[in-house]
Design a protein that fits this description.
Shape: elongated
Distance between the termini: 84 Å
Number of helices: 17
Number of domains: 3
Amino acid sequence: MDWVDELMEKLGSPNLLARENAIIRLSENDDSRIVPALIELLKKGNKDEQGSSAKALGYIKDTRALTALIETLRNENLSVRLYASNAIGRFGQSAVPFLIDALNIGNSNVREYAIRELGDIKDVQAVPAVISVLNDINAFPNVIVNSEIALDKIADANPGNPSLTIAVFPLIVRMNDLDWNVRAWAAKALGKIGDIRAVQPLIERLGRIECAELVASEIIVRCKTTQHLEDFEIGLQKGYDNLKKSAKTSELLFRIQIKISRLMTEVAKKRDELAQDKGILLTDTPKPPKKGGVYQQIRRTVRNG
């Protein structure tokens, strides 16, 4: 038995230290036999051997192992699945095409782990594939939530990237989902993308999605021009007009008006910031452009509330 065989045998040892030592020694050697042997053990070994071989393959980062690692995401043992998932994550961008292909596998575990890794890698080329999962009416809620979290992470790492705009409408649709977690993460992802088209639907859901105000506030922060702020105000006005029609109680409407009042204050502050960046000092809070619009309505209601 040569040294490779000896180390491979130790990957199944009940002694954790022995397994870790074998993993390190195998991953630091470039012997051509190692990767094929690890892949074979990943497929046919016991749970300790599978977990150890997955970990070693993650350190080695040979793309020949990616297909087998992704297939291991089907494994019935949770710890083996986690080892495989962590190993795939170590490959970084080179794993993205493999993970995208994995989303087409009709297995919930595989799809969930694949979508998580795509979110952690944060590569915008994954956006269309992630959206396809988001649009899947047969996907489990946990898979949908992970697709929204992935979009949130990708948007946070790639601010203003135009590739993300195609996610706006599918996320708006998901804000109507029956699952509150799906609704909340859809809203959060929209905040990271910062697209003005999300403002009106967010305002319309101030009474249904707890984080909607914070998300709208995040969009204000991401506004780069006064035109963006004006577009935000238009969306806010339309959203509020629709809310007035659908609010079931005056108490609910009043609470919503308080939230909108806070957003209006943030818009005014942001407008001042943009003006100061251009060397213009605003001496007073800018008056809203539309007489009788949401600004006057809310201020009057809150003042008399």
